[in-house]
Automatic annotation (TrEMBL):
Its EC number is 1.14.11.16. The chain crosses the membrane at residues 649-680. It comes from the Eukaryota. Residues 154-214 form a coiled coil. This is Peptidase c14 caspase catalytic subunit p20, putative. Residues 716-803 form the MaoC-like domain. Residues 7-29 have a biased composition (Basic and acidic residues). InterPro entries: HotDog_dom_sf, MaoC-like_dom, TPR-like_helical_dom_sf, TPR_2, TPR_rpt, Ycf3. It comes from Ichthyophthirius multifiliis (White spot disease agent).
Length: 864
């Protein structure tokens, strides 16, 4: 049978018809595949079906040879996207490469190929593809978005931020909300990496606004709050993430970390346990829980968690680091170093030496720490943080210029860590360059507003320059974020103490002790509690904390000295002698201790020992002008304080007058001789009865009290004549101060001395001891009235005839602030009623400005 003849034209028509049919089938398959890929509820099988349709379409297209090359590129690109979504990145790369061969001018094909390479971890190759895509089309926001991801992978965060910003400038269509979300989300994370937390928080908040139900966005926003030390805000965001997706162990872990940093350690453990329930093999959560156990003092539980973490991930050096810290916590330094060395054995990279250096730094072994930091720098010279750590160790070694150089190097390498500026500030503070110190601490707080550590460091500078209110404000702000931090409470307690706000100081110091401060702080806290009570004249309450301070530091002379003074003031003279003696054994040249023990011996009526101590104190510090003379009469009662030479002259004068009168009655020659003898005896009486407390003696220069704790006393009695004169001068004719009857009606029994008249005793004392001083302010509290004729009424029953009230004025230096040509001096002022067992009649405080005379060098009065 013969085949019918078919012309060439008929054959071409048949071929064209077949190709058209193949094209149609290819397009149909292609459209079916696209429909599957666009479905919002597609599953893996749908993607596999779509890949099959795309493959069939490509095969049919190859038969239809007249199809344009751009169509081939489109089909390969579509199948490449399906492979990408299916996770078959190598096959996807093949298809996108085919698309590029067919159509080299399409930017999106290069961009897609770049995404494949990025997924295959071929970072540098992917960067080339995105560069080509942007070269072909610089208006495509997606290309910038994709290249930014590559820069972030390469840790080139500033370049990544620039590309994300470019993408956001180009992605203006509301339909591109998902791309905008990615740009804000990832740019926020990049800002966090370079420690620009405010910008990071702003971007991530925008991402959360675009996708309110996105758990990763809430979690990452929480991380930015966390790293900015805004732990309460971080806690809220981590909880939002958990509410949106409670299947992620990471979210529970992060919430636990936030609780840990606000001091809620037990609540933190609960969250760690939830994280481990979700993922029992999460080594990082076990590591963090171990650190929490360590903070709670549950050392064995900490070791168990660290051991499990190491078993799950033996290559993480941080786990060995913390295991070493657990040994260090119980002072097992040998094992601590062993685990640090295991840490090093993991690998010879920067992190190994950096981590061990941090271990040594925490162990205060700064020589070893710096050795490891230097090794880390050699391995990775461009890593800024190691210079920062090295600078911290240099501060501890007091190698301050080198510390500043290391901090500046960290800044030069691009670090924005606010701790670097804080470190420079600390260095300048120790160099006593307070202006620069404040400048750099302010810089640190500009970069990280509210940073507690920076606030504490700045408060230290304010205390040094005696701006105590500024220091208190900084510490209060720090405590608003960490309200129970015992270290910050301790610092604020010291600031209140220096600011003479003793009640507030006591409150903070007690709270600090309850919170469990650093062990090295405990003795100082007890000491300042004690002297705060003492400054409030609660001497009995002062003794207990001072005793605790002494238990912790048995050989701290200052602590023992303060307790000795308290024992003296509460009348426990034997204990006072014992403490002063211990101080003298530790500091044989301590004239103040000898002076104090002399008082205690005098109270015990051991006058020879007292005189010996006073004389020795004077010998040790003969130029100290703060001391005055006290004269003892034959009955061992104090007389009014009078300069020594004047008293001698007066006594001799009266003795001569008495002799002269007697000589007139008898015989001139005999009684002149007798008068001379009497004068000689009077002089001897003065000489023998002068009780020198190591006081300053001189005609022109008056006593000058300049050291905290120095004090001076003056005894005074007010007469009825003085009261009448004061009434006349002041115009104050209050009947209480004029007549006995109104006094009885006012429940004070009799005529009282004017309050302001009685307080004139302080004017006398201050005028004698601070010659060129000016009052700033004075606070006075009236505890009990002072009467005229009081002593007569009390002592008449004992048949003694002593006239008028006898009181004692007392001033003591509380604080001295040095300025250029003057001192700001705070004094305690007290009036005691001697006939009422030293009852306090008046107490208060005085603040004055003292201008030093030109002929006095203040340095000579500063206690060494």
């Amino acid at each position: 049978m013969t085949t019918p003849f078919i012309s060439k034209r008929e054959k071409n028509q048949a071929d064209n018809k077949e190709q058209a049919q193949k094209q149609k089938e290819a397009h149909d398959k292609f459209n079916q595949a696209k429909k599957l890929m666009k479905s919002e509820i597609k599953v893996q099988k749908d993607i596999e079906k779509a890949i099959q349709f795309f493959s069939e379409a490509i095969s049919l297209l190859q038969v239809a040879s007249q199809e344009k090359v751009q169509t081939y590129a489109k089909y390969y690109s579509a199948r490449g996207n399906a492979y990408m979504e299916h996770g078959q990145y190598q096959r996807a790369l093949y298809d996108f490469s085919a698309a590029v061969r067919f159509d080299e001018g399409r930017a999106d094909y290069y961009s897609c190929r770049g995404n494949c390479l990025l997924q295959l971890n071929q970072i540098k190759e992917s960067l080339k593809e995105f560069n080509k895509a942007i070269e072909l089309d610089c208006t495509d926001g997606f290309s910038y978005l994709n290249r930014a991801l590559v820069f972030a992978k390469l840790e080139e965060y500033n370049n990544a931020i620039d590309d994300y910003s470019s993408a956001l400038g180009l992605l203006k269509d509301n339909k591109q909300a998902n791309a905008k979300f990615k740009a804000y989300f990832h740019r926020g994370n990049c800002y966090r990496q370079i420690k620009e937390y405010d910008k990071s928080i702003e971007d991530l908040q925008k991402a959360c606004e675009i996708k309110k139900d996105n758990a990763p966005a809430q979690n990452n926003l929480g991380l930015s709050f966390f790293e900015n030390q805004l732990y309460e805000q971080a806690l809220a965001k981590f909880q939002n993430a958990i509410n949106l997706d409670d299947s992620k162990a990471t979210y529970y872990n992060n919430k636990a970390l936030a609780l840990y940093h606000i001091g809620k350690l037990k609540e933190s453990l609960i969250e760690y346990n939830k994280a481990i329930d979700v993922d029992p093999l999460d080594a990082r959560t076990l590591y963090n829980r171990g650190n929490t156990y360590l903070a709670l003092g549950q050392n064995q539980d900490a070791h168990n968690d660290f051991d499990q973490a190491i078993q799950l991930n033996p290559g993480n050096p941080k786990f060995y680091h913390s295991k070493g810290l657990a040994f260090q916590d119980v002072e097992d330094y040998e094992n601590a170093i062993i685990f640090s060395n295991k840490h090093q054995a993991i690998g010879n990279d920067r992190l190994v030496f950096e981590s061990r250096g941090l271990v040594y730094q925490e162990m205060k072994n700064h020589d070893y720490a710096i050795y490891d930091f230097d090794a880390a720098i050699q391995l990775e010279p461009g890593y800024a943080e190691v210079y920062y750590y090295k600078g911290l160790s240099r501060i501890e070694q007091r190698n301050l210029q080198d510390a500043i150089e290391n901090f500046n190097m960290a800044i030069k390498l691009g670090s924005n860590n606010p701790g670097i500026y804080s470190g420079i500030g600390q260095s300048y503070r120790l160099l006593r360059n307070y202006e620069k110190a404040l400048y750099y601490l302010n810089q640190a707080l500009e970069k990280s507003p509210g940073n507690e550590e920076c606030l504490v460091q700045r408060s230290n500078i304010y205390v040094d320059i005696q701006k105590y209110q500024n220091a208190i404000d900084d510490l209060s702000e720090a405590l608003s974020k960490r309200p129970n931090d015992p270290q910050i409470l301790y610092k604020r307690g010291l600031a209140y103490y220096k600011y003479l706000q003793f009640e507030k100081a006591i409150k903070d110091l007690l709270n600090a002790m309850e919170g469990g401060p650093f062990q090295s702080y405990e003795s100082d806290i007890h000491y300042h509690l004690g002297i705060s009570f003492a400054n409030l004249e609660l001497f009995e309450k002062a003794i207990q904390p001072l005793s605790k301070a002494i238990q912790l530091c048995k050989y701290e002379a200052q602590y023992i000295h303060e307790r000795a003074k308290c024992y003296l003031l509460v009348g426990e003279f034997e204990k006072s002698v014992e403490d002063f003696t211990r101080v003298i054994q530790l500091q044989p040249k301590n004239s103040h201790a000898l002076f104090g023990r002399g008082f205690a011996f005098k109270a015990l009526k051991e006058y020879e020992k007292a005189a010996e101590d006073f004389e020795q104190a004077k010998m040790l510090d003969p130029g100290n002008p703060k001391l005055v003379l006290t004269i003892i009469n034959e009955g061992n009662e104090y007389c009014q304080n009078i300069p020594k030479k004047l008293l001698k002259i007066l006594l001799i004068f009266f003795a001569i007058v008495k002799t002269f009168v007697a000589s007139l009655l008898l015989s001139l020659s005999l009684f002149w001789i007798f008068g001379i003898l009497l004068a000689f005896c009077a002089w001897k009486k003065v000489k023998n009865n002068v009780d020198v407390f190591g006081y300053y003696e001189g005609e022109e220069v008056q006593p000058l009290i300049v050291n905290v704790g120095d004090f001076c006393k003056l005894r005074k009695k007010f007469t009825e004549d003085q009261l009448v004169m004061f009434n006349s001068c002041s115009g104050d004719n209050n009947p209480v101060f004029v007549s006995e009857l109104p006094g009885k009606k006012a429940f004070i029994r009799q005529t009282a001395v004017h309050n302001m008249l009685s307080n004139s005793i302080f004017s006398i004392l201050i005028g004698k001891t601070f010659r060129d001083s000016v009052y700033i302010n004075q606070n006075i509290r009236y505890r009990a009235p002072i009467f005229i004729e009081e002593e007569v009424q009390i002592l008449q029953q004992q048949q003694k005839n002593i006239q008028n009230v006898k009181i004692e004025g007392y001033i003591e230096v509380l604080d001295v602030q040095e300025q250029e040509n003057r001192k700001i001096i705070a004094l305690r002022t007290i009036i005691y009623k001697l006939e009422y067992n030293n009852q306090v009649a008046t107490d208060g405080e005085v603040k004055l400005i003292y201008y030093a005379p030109e002929n006095i060098k203040l340095e000579q009065f500063i206690e060494q």
